[in-house]
Each structure stands twice: as structure tokens, then as C-alpha cells.
Amino acid sequence: MTNIHATTTAAQTTAAQTARPPASPLHARIGAALTGAAIPADLLDLDAHDPLARKREEFTLPGGVVYLDGNSLGALPRAVPERLQQVAAQEWGDALIRSWSAGADRGRDWMNLPDRVAAKIAPLIGALPHEVAVTDTTGVNTFKVLAAALKLAPAERRVILTDAENFPTDLYVAQGLLDLLGGGYELRRVNPDALDGHLTADVAALLLTEVDYRTGRRLDMAAITAQARAAGVLTVWDLAHSAGAFPVDLRGAGADFAVGCGYKFLNGGPGAPSFLFVSERHLGNENAAPVAISGWMGHADPFEMDRAFTPAPGARRFVPGTPMVLSLSALDSALDVFADVDLHALRTKSLSLTDTFIRLMEPLCARFPLTLVTPQEHARRGSQVSYRHPQAREVMADLIGGGVIGDYRTPDILRFGFTPLYHSHADVARAVAGVQAALEARA
Amino acid sequence: MTNIHATTTAAQTTAAQTARPPASPLHARIGAALTGAAIPADLLDLDAHDPLARKREEFTLPGGVVYLDGNSLGALPRAVPERLQQVAAQEWGDALIRSWSAGADRGRDWMNLPDRVAAKIAPLIGALPHEVAVTDTTGVNTFKVLAAALKLAPAERRVILTDAENFPTDLYVAQGLLDLLGGGYELRRVNPDALDGHLTADVAALLLTEVDYRTGRRLDMAAITAQARAAGVLTVWDLAHSAGAFPVDLRGAGADFAVGCGYKFLNGGPGAPSFLFVSERHLGNENAAPVAISGWMGHADPFEMDRAFTPAPGARRFVPGTPMVLSLSALDSALDVFADVDLHALRTKSLSLTDTFIRLMEPLCARFPLTLVTPQEHARRGSQVSYRHPQAREVMADLIGGGVIGDYRTPDILRFGFTPLYHSHADVARAVAGVQAALEARA
């Protein structure tokens, strides 16, 4: 029903169908620039001393490509296919229904799988394990935590305040919830860099995405959360481009709620289950966050099959339905990549990669109509770098065909995501060589 | 966080951990009765003339087991593991983000995968492809269609009428939605076999599960839907134990909404994505069913990234988030098993299997405290047979340990599901021999 041809470019489709070798002389030229790029000695030196360099071998990546779209779909961790086979053949095919409980003592039962995955995500976002639930999609989780926030807020607070340029789904979900509730609820869109005067007595919740999906601009979560709390406003943070990209400290910031993606920097696979965070302040016996979508998996005793819903003790109460075990197992396996990763080292490398990219791209910005839109200031930058270009859609199609896989975002954004777990500084130089070839061909 | 030991029996866990050979003399005795059962000639004859017998080879099933829990988790279709490998290694690992659009002309892109799966489910439930969406879990979908029904109903209709003994999640979800809405909404629980007098002018929607999860009692969907429509009440059918078990005719019945599971009789794998149905009456430009949880995947043009939500033309509008591609691909592959299946032949065989089971169990009902709770009348029976037994929990644990895998439901139900795609009449005789051994050991 969705007309895919209206939503992607023909070049993207062609590139993926034919894969290597490149399909056109232009793609070949970009590919040659990429693979033949001379790597400056200072970058080789940075790579030689990179404490995370060893992590790259834990991923399977195609040859002839610099993959700069891990902020849309993380690369495949090498261990995942075998785990999927094991889940399909043994746990499903052989043990069948028994797998819901079998292996609970060894941490292999399906019933507690959502909680085990939550416990792996918790340290990446500065949360306690029982404050995290892994379930559903980011949109559905946004709906659930917004609903909880609105119900927790005093009745006279009926406004959701959000970034005017927030990710569309966040806006759609908030508006859909308010339409459902009716009765004077309102979505108010403002500039998140200028919140002063907007945290008024009618605001129930502040819904913000920490890192902007287009510009890569990072907000000051700690300062904004403190400002909101002082004004009696609950915070809902979308960590889509944060979790797994750098250390997040939800508890340190005093956040109330958060959601995030499993398939971006957490590398959980296409459409991997999402996570949500509920501060333990809202999980107590009194004034607990209400569960709008309540299902058997979030019940304190799922197999009792009571007629009334009694919420599970932690954020697990926000898991309504039977988890998608195949997708969830892939995410579970993917998260093991983070087990020995120092998140501060991850952040240091991310900034070094994006600094390098910005520096190497500077000469191209002077020659071509490219405008950097990502903040140069480290504290205000996520793990991506974006540029405006009047033919961004066509340029990105060329790049993808040639092996520099970033993505295009309307209306005119070229977006390049950097993943410190599998990118080297040499990759940055190769990508820039590819961009140069693409821009020169179009000039 | 969930204490699994409180929700299953130790015997179940032990059985699954040790698998074959059976863990105890009792399990060995049940297993021997099962594998050594003499199969009556009339049953061998039925199997010899079974037009669906050839389908069994399309499934991978463990040896030494009669698996009668396909109504909780369908068995593994043989083609699924290879499909999963292909999705993980090629589509994710190699093509990466390009797989969202690549192969659209060959029906292999991820973007339209939910619609392709919907098109495979549509004929199984008597729907048009654009009336079906495949997404989320059954609980979340129940929330979405109930929300749509309440918003479509006139404001003075604020009651959801449901079966007092409905599946707990249906009750929880309905109550959670009404709590969220506040303002005089009410969940009213009645006996679905005696609806007369309950379809009053304050009722917005009737939420019923066609086949009861405990007793296997099937409702008359056509008659009840007609009665509801005549009373101005919208219908929401839960097809958890219907879809894939026998032909369902939602359009013929005039149903408004429906939901169902991908992981039971559709064999889509543990926690497979769910489906929902919205009659095309509610998908038009005027008076369309509103989308409470609206995300980018349900937008008419997802990559435009508009600030306002414009719903996709069909039921696709109810797909809020990025689909869980691994789980959804398994379901897509699993549904191919149905491509050459005559659903009326499926129903005929299902009734023959359950008739046979009821008949062979009769002598045991006379000797032991077993009470059949499934209707004998064909029109009122799904594809499972259930008995009450005062020690149902313990008896089922014994049976599972010995290789007759059914399940226990509180408080005292032994449940046996029959799947015509992979069960023979000989399996029925083997299962009954196992049940006899278990009951004799406990007498």
C-alpha cells in the first residue's frame, strides 16, 4: 500500500540490488576514490592507539563500503546469526512452548528475556535495571510514557511541550494521544534552546529528543531536566540517537521518563525492540505511573490469569504483550558487544571521529554549496555530522551507489552517522574522498 | 523481575532442561505409552485418506513428543530458519539500510513487508488485504482498535461490553484504556451466550474472543455481529484461537474490528507480530477510524517527515513504528505453509481430530475425575479440547515430562490444542495413551 518509489530514490534501489561492482561510471568513480584514498599519517596514528579498534571484528560489514548510517540501522554483530539459529532451531523448534520457562536458572528462559535485555541497557543510559523495560516500538513506548506522565500530572496541567522540530513520530504520537484524550489537552511546539518562559503552570510534560535526528544537535539533558523539575514539569526524553552513542545518565539528570531505539547505536537489528525508562520515583506503591496499555506480560503474576490487572513491581509493568522473541534475542546478543566497552572512551572516540570528519570536509564546504549544520561545540554534538546541500537527495543517492552509505533527510540534509565501535579514522578519510568525488562529478 | 518459579511447575522446568530421555520413571512410563500406543485401524484409515497429511513434512517437530500446544505456540515451519539466516546475513548484514527499499519490485523490501504479510493473512480471516495490518502485539492492537471504536461511537455510548470470562489481557487492555479516558467510560462483563438485553443504547463496542482460551467454546460470530449491528454496537473480535485454525469470515459477518495472534495457529514463532482488521467501512475519507497511536510507518508518506500525521490509505495507518523485521520475516515465511491449504478441509480435519480425541478420552472420563468442558456440537467448538481435573496442574506437568505437551490453565483446566497441519489421528491415539498412563499413575 505504501508506494516505496515515492519515498526513496531509484538510485538507492539499484545500488542495493546490484551491490558491488558499482552500477554506473559515477558510482565506480566514487568507489575508487573511497578504496584508493590516501590516509593521512595522523589518522593512522590515531587508529593505531584506538582502545576500541578491537571491537570492529565483532561486526560483519560488507567490503567496499563506509557505512555511516548506524544511527538509522546499526551494523550486524557477528554473534547474532548463530544466536538466531539457536533460538529458531532449538528453543522454538525443539523445546517449543517449554522455552518460556526452561533454562530460567541459566538465564535462558523467554519469560525473563525482556528483563535480561533491560538489565543490559540500564548501564548504557544511567538507569537501574528495574527502571527499564524492553518492549514494543519506540512510538508505542512514547505513547505509554506520555500517557503515564499526563495521568501523573495535576489535572490543571494539560500541555505537552515539545521541540517544534522534533522527530515526526514523537509529534504524531503526542498529538494522537491528546486527540484520544480530548478535553483541553494541547501539544505546544517551541524551540528547545529557548525554553525560558515556556515551562508554565499548565505544562504537564516536556517531550524532547536529546540529539536532533537531522542536525545532530545535542541538548543539555541535565540542565533542561533540572529546569523542568523546578517548574513542576515531568520530562520525557527520546534517546533514539543517544543510547549506545555516548554515556547517558538519566538518574543523574533526574529524568522522569525516557524511550529509545534498539536498532540504531545498540545494533539490535531492523526494527529491534525499543526500551523505555520510568524513574523509580514513579514505580512505588503510591502515586505510581499508571499503565495505559496493560497486558498479561506486565502483570505481577502472568500465569495466574486474574480478571484484574496487578502491575509487576518494576518497569516490567509496561510490557503489555508477548515479546517478539526472535527480534528480542537478536538485540540481547547484540548488546553483549557493549559488555567490555568504556562509554567514556566511546564518547572520546566519537568526538574524535566527528571532529576529523568536520575538519576534512572543510575544504569541500569552501568549494561546494555545503553548509555544516551540526554544532562544533563538543557538548552540543551527538555522534553524527550533517550538512545542508541544495541537491542533498541526489548527492546521497550517488554516495550510496558508490559505497558511502549515509542518509538523506528532508528537505536538504546529508546525514553521516559515526559508530565508534566499528569506525576508524581511516574510514573517515575514505568517506570524505568519496564525498569529494561525488561533489566534483556534480559540479 | 518476574519470579518464574511461582508461575510454572518445577516439573515443567526440569522436563525441558533435560529433554529426552525422560527424567523420571513416571515420565518414562508416559513416554512408553505414547510411543508404543496401538493405533486403531479406523484411525490409520483416516490418516491414509487425509488430504492434509503431506503438510506435516513442512514442519520440524521433536521426536517422542505429541505437541498439543500449537494454540499457544505453533510449531516451527521448516523453511523459517533459512529465511532468518538470509534476513540476518544478507538483508541486514550486507545490504544494511538499503534493505528498506531494495527489492521492492521483487517483493523483498522491508518497507512493504508488513503489507505483504497482511495480504497473506487476509484470506485466512475473510478480509481484503488493505483491511489488515500486521504490527505490534495482540494487546497493543486490541488497545488501538478499541480506542478507534470508542471514538467512532456516538458520545453517549461509553460502555465496552465483554465476556466476563474473556482472556485476561483483553480485560486488562479494555480497563486500562477506559481508565486513561476517564469520564464515565465503563467495562461491562456479561455472559456472551446470553447477550439479549445487554446491547443497550449506552454500549459503544462489543469485545469478544471467538474461541474461549480455556474451554475451546466457539461463539457464533455471524449471528452475534448481526445482533450487535442491529443495536448500533461496533464489534471487536479477538481471533487468537481462530485465525489459521478454521476459516474466518470477517467481511461475511460484517465485523467492524478484529485482532489476532501470529504465534498460535499461524505458526509465526514466539511472540510473532499480531494482526488487526479494520472494516473498509471505517477506512474511508469520512468518518474514518481515528488512529490513537500514530507513528511514521502509518503515515501516507513516511519519508516526507511532515510535522502532521496524514494516515496511510488502508489499515496500514495502524502500524505506528518500525516493524520488527526478524520476527516479521519469520511470520512471513511461516504463512507460506497456508498457500495451498483449503481452509474448509482444515476445519473438517480439525473436527475429526477433536471428535476422535473426545471419543477416545470417554473411557478415561468414566474412570477418573475428568470433565469435558469443550462443546460437543461442532459449530460451538474451536480446535482444542479441554477437561477439568482437580489436579490439572500436576497432571499436565507429568504429561509434559512424558512427551504429551498440552497446557494447564488456572484453576483446573487441561488444554489440548489440535493443529490439522501437523497432527494425525494416530497422534491423537498416542496422546490419549499418554494421558491414560499419567492418570493411572496418579490414581
UniProtKB/TrEMBL annotation, chains A, B:
Q: What positions belong to coiled-coil segments?
A: none
Q: Which SUPFAM superfamilies does this one have?
A: PLP-dependent transferases
Q: Which cofactor does it need?
A: pyridoxal 5'-phosphate
Listed InterPro entries = Kynureninase, PyrdxlP-dep_Trfase, PyrdxlP-dep_Trfase_major, PyrdxlP-dep_Trfase_small
Q: What class of enzyme is it?
A: hydrolase
**Pathway linked to the protein:** Amino-acid degradation; L-kynurenine degradation; L-alanine and anthranilate from L-kynurenine: step 1/1; Cofactor biosynthesis; NAD(+) biosynthesis; quinolinate from L-kynurenine: step 2/3
Query: Reaction catalysed by this chain?
Result: L-kynurenine + H2O = anthranilate + L-alanine + H(+); 3-hydroxy-L-kynurenine + H2O = 3-hydroxyanthranilate + L-alanine + H(+)
A Pfam family (short name) is KYNU_C
Gene Ontology BP annotations: anthranilate metabolic process; L-kynurenine catabolic process; L-tryptophan catabolic process to kynurenine; NAD+ biosynthetic process; quinolinate biosynthetic process
Give any GO molecular function from the UniProt entry: kynureninase activity
Where is the stretch described as Disordered?
1-24
- Keywords for this entry? Hydrolase, Pyridine nucleotide biosynthesis, Pyridoxal phosphate
Q: Which residues does the annotation say bind pyridoxal 5'-phosphate?
A: T138, F167, P168, T169, D170, T209, D238, H241, Y263, W296, T322
Cellular component aspect of the GO annotation: cytoplasm
Key word Phosphoprotein present: no
Q: Which Gene3D superfamilies match?
A: Aspartate Aminotransferase, domain 1, Type I PLP-dependent aspartate aminotransferase-like (Major domain)
Q: What is its EC number?
A: 3.7.1.3
- Please note every region of biased composition (Low complexity): 1-19
Q: Write down which residues bear the modification named N6-(pyridoxal phosphate)lysine.
A: K264
Quaternary context? Homodimer.
As for family, the record states: Belongs to the kynureninase family.
| Biological function | Catalyzes the cleavage of L-kynurenine (L-Kyn) and L-3-hydroxykynurenine (L-3OHKyn) into anthranilic acid (AA) and 3-hydroxyanthranilic acid (3-OHAA), respectively.
Q: What is this protein called?
A: Kynureninase
Q: Which organism is it from?
A: Deinococcus indicus
